[in-house]
Amino acid sequence: MMESFKEKFKIAKVLASIFTHSSTLEENESYHKWINENPEHQKIADRILNQRTYEEHSLLIKSFSSQKAWEKIYPLLNGEKAPNLFLWKRSMRYAALYLTTHDTGFLSYI
After folding, report:
1. What is the pLDDT of residue 62?
2. I want to staple 17 with a disulfide (CB 3.0 to 4.6 A). Which of 23, 32, 77, 84 is the partner?
3. d(C-alpha 21, C-alpha 2), whole Å
4. What are the C-alpha distances in Å from 14 to residues 38, 68, 75, 98?
5. Residue 28 and residue 24: Cα distance in Å, rounded?
6. Under a CB-based contact definition with an 8 Å cutoff, are residues 15 and 49 in contact?
7. Where are the alpha helices (DSSP H) in the chain?
8. How far is CA 94 from the centre of its chain?
9. What is the chain's Cα-based Rg?
10. Which superkingdom (predicted)?
């Protein structure tokens, strides 16, 4: 599963660079290889690289409340205040995992 996530993250990075017109030759090659692997990939890329879709997602992200998300995560950490760097880092991993699995996001398209 981790390998799948890494591959998705890699193609997400490539798609982002193409969207911003900052892709390298290597990223362009990765993009075309990915597109040719599966016809569904073209549909996914078209949706992600669509300016209107980007604007809709920007509005969604702007409406996201990090405070409300933290209020959901905090009880899962047994109310720990993260008194040191180790606990803070662990808390951030839990927060990232929670947000990744419970909110819609860019990677859900891939």
Report:
1. 80
2. 23
3. 29
4. 16, 31, 36, 24
5. 6
6. yes
7. 2-19, 25-37, 39-48, 51-62, 66-76, 85-102
8. 15
9. 17
10. Bacteria
Say if pTM beats, i.e. exceeds, 0.70: no
Asked whether 42 and 59 are in contact (CB, 8 A), the reply is no
Q: Which residues of 12-39 are buried (b: 16+ CB within 10 A; e: fewer)?
A: bebbebbeeeebeeebeebbeebeeeee
The number of angstroms, rounded, from the C-alpha of 53 to the middle of its chain's C-alpha atoms is: 15
Amino acid 70: pLDDT:
78
Long-range CB contacts (within 8 A, 24+) of 13-21: 15/45, 15/48, 15/49, 18/49, 19/48, 19/49, 19/54
